[in-house]
What we know:
Blueprint: E1 5-6, E2 12-13, E3 20-21, H1 23-50, H2 56-83, H3 115-133, H4 144-166, H5 171-175, H6 183-201, H7 219-238, H8 246-274, H9 279-293, H10 302-319, H11 322-325, H12 334-352, H13 355-358, H14 376-404, H15 415-420, H16 422-427, H17 465-481
Antiparallel strand pairs: 1-2, 2-3
Amino acid sequence: MVNITYDASGDLISSNGVNVYNMGDIAWTLASTALVWIMIPGVGFFYSGLLRRKNALNMIYLSMMTVAMVSFQWFFWGYSLAFSDTASPFIGDLKYFGLRNVLDQPSVGSAKVPALVFCVFQLMFAAITPMIAIGAVAERSRLGPLLAFVFAWSTLVYDPIACWTWNTKGWSYVLGGLDFAGGTPVHISSGTAALAISLYLGKRRGYGTERLAYKPHNTTYVILGTVFLWFGWFGFNGGSALSANLRATQACIVTNLAASVGGLTWMFWDYRLERKWSVVGFCSGAISGLVAITPGSGYVGSPAAVLFGFLAGTVCNFATQLKFIFKFDDTLDIFASHAIGGIVGNILTGLFAQASVAGADGITSILGGWLDHNYRQLGIQLADSVSGLAYSFVMTTIILWIMHFIPGLRLRCDEETEILGVDDAEMGEFAYDYVGIESELMPRSEYNIGASAGNREPRHTAATTSQISEQEKDAKQLAGEA
């Protein structure tokens, strides 16, 4: 057992009698751990609401499965591979295998909290990242093999990127990369992995026809998921200060501001198409703003956060059209929202990072970005972004194809499962008492080719004046009948 004592002020003194930890900092970091945990089912609810009701339950299940699998992987060797203090520039070793000797010594992330506290906080980042990625399997994957995929992906993709980004021995950290809370390890890696998964699985049955021209089945779930995510992001970014101080406060301010501006921006862009105030558009924009501000939240001021939100809401909105241009089925627009959003955030951090903001904790010293005339920083941010994107895409593709040739581990489900829905075929349970599949049973010859919905963000085709007038006419007629 650890032999600890307390000083006169109530602060914790480690067993070596040297390190003193402020109990308030520990409390804030543990509270932030709980905040980030609630984000993981938030992702599940968000994804679930965007899909058809016959595939609604498995996304919520996957969020809980991911927490469980990554919790074991993190205990087994994940933490050691990411944060051992004898790591290489690329990945750690097994010094802390099975969390051996992860106790009251200062953490790799900050001397202000013990390693044990830092470990459980970082676990939540490790758990949410593969959950973001596996949303790409929506409506066309077997569930069993995803257990193996999450374990392998966390080990071979997340842990190395987390090591080179946040471990003091990592190459990006040594180079001077600025990534406060996970622009590359969390968002670029998961968004790019989602692209690789989408390409590997191929298109869903009926893709590009009216069979997939559906709208989100439960917009309330989308809002609920966004609430969990926005709420938890205060711990995601604010908690990354690992201390209850002004820097953590500033991180919370810019997080909320970027989310707000991102949501409004995306909603306004969508309004130009159909003259409707889309709550799904607002939620998508809020999340893109949260993604973009993640790497810069501990480095940029409030005015910059407005630009983060606006550019994320704009660039990510238009990036959703890439799936139509390159003809891949990224059902939930994960690549556009997370990979592109993470790149936007990394680049803007290189431009707007300020030494004065980072130094608000009284400890951190950086050269800043372009605002502080450190023009080299943008190149470092680009190198980190491209490395994370390329590594995640290649390694995810390799993992998927290795699993493809191992009996029982192939991800793609059969056509019958797609028709019935993954909930029924793979789980035997449902989110709702009634799930309609009649339209799925029509012959392919009766499909109407050319439909473009069935995604988080449809094809950007502006509604004509006649279409808008027809919609208004129908609405008035229905109102009169009522």
